[in-house]
Amino acid sequence: MADVIVIGGGPAGLGAALEAKKTGAESVVILERDRELGGILNQCIHNGFGLHEFQEELTGPEYAQRFINQVKDEEIDVYLNTMVLDLTEDRKVTVLGDEGVQVIQGKSVVLAMGCRERTAGAIDLQGYRPAGVYNAGMAQRILNMEGYQVGREVVIYGSGDIGLIMARRMTLEGAKVKAVVEVMPHSSGLYRNIAQCLEDYDIPLLLRHQIQKVYGKDRIEGVTISQIDDQWRTVEGTEKIISCDTLLLSVGLIPENELSEKGNVPLDSGTKGAIVNSTMETGIPGIFSCGNVLHVHDIVDFVTKESRIAGRNAARFARNELPRGEEIPTRPGKGVTYTLPQKLMLEDPDGVTLFLRSDVIYKKARVKVKEGDRLVKEKRERLIVPSEMVQITLDPEELRELNGEIIVEIVGEKND
Ligand SMILES: Cc1cc2nc3c(=O)[nH]c(=O)nc-3n(C[C@H](O)[C@H](O)[C@H](O)COP(=O)(O)OP(=O)(O)OC[C@H]3O[C@@H](n4cnc5c(N)ncnc54)[C@H](O)[C@@H]3O)c2cc1C
Predict the structure, then answer these.
(1) Maximum Cα–Cα distance across the chain
(2) Of the residues 5, 33, 40, which should be mutated to test ligand 1's pocket, given the most ligand atoms within 8 Å of the CB?
């Protein structure tokens, strides 16, 4: 039996476990399937982590280490090489670890399993399945953690952050990155990554382009690309072949929610993660969620912030002290693809920060939180892009005045 069981030892799991322990949980356990703590950060050897949390630019491993050191100091029980196989609604967790299969009962559970990459199958890539086609994150792991060069002539499909960062990384290792091919009219990565990873190295970003076909039987030899129009149709006459020995796919991330499903945790079709209230509690009492398994984050500092809320409230639940009260739903309106949390508690002494993403790029934008026709809060942003999460905070007084569904919308000059 443990007060709080945390599944996953990435930044979300580390942050939740530490906060649970610091706020009074007596026994906190982290279950991690990998051989070390840190999650995806271990392979992110570039800098850019920790600007909000530490006001410093750290590498991924440096950021993780700060939390791993604290976990050691706080006497949190860590089980590595331990795969969680099952989770029940009454918070029984089945694990496969060094001592075989075991069942651990948690007073509360925090889901922090992160996310995984979409594959070639998921995007229906045409052609053979030759060697040399990798998910960008897998290539990053092979290069940065195992020390192998992945390829020499590279095309990257999708301009998510992992693809952009790998474009620079492969270039620094002596490879020629011939193009980053993106079907959307804008990149799905952070602006700073486009500048620092592509523009600084003269790597072309081909927007509104698709890969039509992969060539090569044993090893990839090239790809055909073409332009597409705004109806997603091929623009005739724009096809061209780019020779390459490596294709990296950076075409989206999916929260790892198989365990959540086993525990009957209700999921949101927009985020593909759990539906949570302001305490990060899911629809199953005592099961909390945070980090990339809840919704895909671009900045790890916000993962840490969210994980603290989950950890603190998991500890409260374990002590039977989690406040219950009236909740109202939130819903994405015009220009917004999702909002989180999906339910707000009206009595919340800390207030609540709503996270949201836009559908397209907006200039001179206003984020509006509305209750029917009443404007509850408004925030101005010079530029909003789908790849960067937007936040807007409601303070305790604003929360207490609410009594109906909240709709969050973005208005501004569309720039598509
Ligand atoms: C390539 C790349 C570059 C990035 N660059 C930046 C950047 O420059 N700046 C920035 O701020 N952020 C960056 N990020 C984002 C940031 O790294 C992530 O948002 C953050 O790591 C997510 O943390 P997490 O704990 O939710 O997930 P993860 O780090 O993925 O951790 C999840 C953990 O759960 C474990 N797990 C999963 N299932 C199970 C199971 N069944 N049993 C046991 N354990 C399990 C996994 O092994 C893993 O260790 C980047 C991300 C990537 C992928």
Answers:
(1) 67
(2) 40
